[in-house]
Amino acid sequence: MDIMEQNVSITNGIITFDMMAAMCHNNRGIGYQGDLPWPKLRADFEYYLKTTSTHKKDSSLMSIHVHGRKTWAVCTDFQASYGGVYHIVCSQSRDPSNKTHPNLLTVAGSVPEALENIADLDRKGKVDSVWIMGGAGIYQECLSHPLCGRIYLTHVYKDFPSDKFFPPFDDNFREVKNDATSDTYHEEDGISFEFKVYQNIRKCNTSI
Ligand SMILES: NC(=O)c1ccc[n+]([C@@H]2O[C@H](COP(=O)([O-])OP(=O)(O)OC[C@H]3O[C@@H](n4cnc5c(N)ncnc54)[C@H](OP(=O)(O)O)[C@@H]3O)[C@@H](O)[C@H]2O)c1
Predict the structure, then answer these.
(1) Does residue 155 belong to any structural domain of this protein?
(2) Span 63-96, pLDDT tens digits
(3) 118-165: per-residue pLDDT in tens?
(4) 83 lines ligand 1 (CB under 6 A)
(5) What is the pLDDT of residue 54?
(6) Is residue 6 part of a domain?
């Protein structure tokens, strides 16, 4: 089974989602002062782009990325536009200064509202895959959601100061073979990192 089939978002006709994140292996840090804790890791960025874009030939199918407002604010135009990717931003305040972009579908007041929007699009046959892109609170909420399928988690084997962290997850997430790439271990500028995948063995087939 390849990556497109894994995050095909449909389990018996019901939409599911996966998470994409990178964290410091030791302290689980994902962010520092609004940015990533580490200098840019080229292979990780390429893996993120390849894994979370649409792989279907049908260009009307969307890969939908769900972000918190601050994570969305630092997405570059390129990250916002590549490979059939569209976005839903979570913001309780629905801050009017929220970054606009042609591929921004909507601003949702909560994660359930974002997932309901996605379910509507899915019923219209428009969704290829769904990715939770952080930050910390969004990851935390989605980890305990029954429709959370997989965590695509890059482990960075070097310590960096961090102020945002990936939440711990329990044994219901089991490490599985990474079918998104066979090239899972990298080193750049003295920083080694590894692409791991964890499958939720309790993912259930209830509706969003
Ligand atoms: N390493 C990684 O994989 C990774 C991934 C993503 C982000 N990051 C890093 O993490 C940091 C940003 O993450 P963050 O946790 O600080 O912020 P964030 O989740 O991106 O944004 C926080 C804002 O999102 C909105 N929000 C969050 N949870 C919500 C919910 N459940 N319902 C409705 N709105 C919600 C709120 O917006 P309002 O204030 O408008 O209500 C909140 O203030 C940056 O440093 C970034 O570089 C790292």
Answers:
(1) yes
(2) 999 999 999 999 999 999 988 999 999 999 988 7
(3) 999 999 999 999 999 999 999 999 999 989 999 999 999 999 999 999
(4) no
(5) 83
(6) no
Q: Helices 111-123 & 136-143, crossing angle to 10 degrees?
A: 70
Residue 171 domain-assigned? Answer: yes
- The range of the structural domain enclosing residue 32 comes to 12-52+59-195
End-to-end CA distance of the chain: 25
Q: In degrees rounded to 5, what are phi and psi of residue 142?
A: -75, -25
Please state, as a whole number, how many other Cβ atoms lie within 10 Å of the Cβ of residue 78: 8
Compute, in angstroms, the gap from residue 75 CA to the centroid of ligand 1.
12
Closest CA to 134 of 75, 208, 53, 47: 75
What phi and psi, each to the nearest 5 degrees, are found at residue 182?
Answer: -95, -10
User: Distance between CA atoms of 185 and 165, rounded to whole angstroms?
Assistant: 22
The token pair that represents 170 in the structure block: 């329990």
Give the separation between CA 86 and CA 93, rounded to whole angstroms.
21
With cut-offs at 50, 70 and 90, classify the pLDDT of residue 60: confident
- Number of independent structural domains in the chain: 1
Residue 114 belongs to domain with CATH number: 3.40.430.10
Quote the tokens at residue 118.
């996605």
Query: Is residue 66 a part of any domain in this protein?
Result: yes
> From CA 80, how far away is CA 52, in angstroms rounded?
11
Q: Pick the closest to residue 3 from 105, 146, 150 (CA basis).
A: 150
Nearest CA to ligand 1 atom 10: 31
Residue with the smallest CA separation from ligand 1 atom 3 is 21
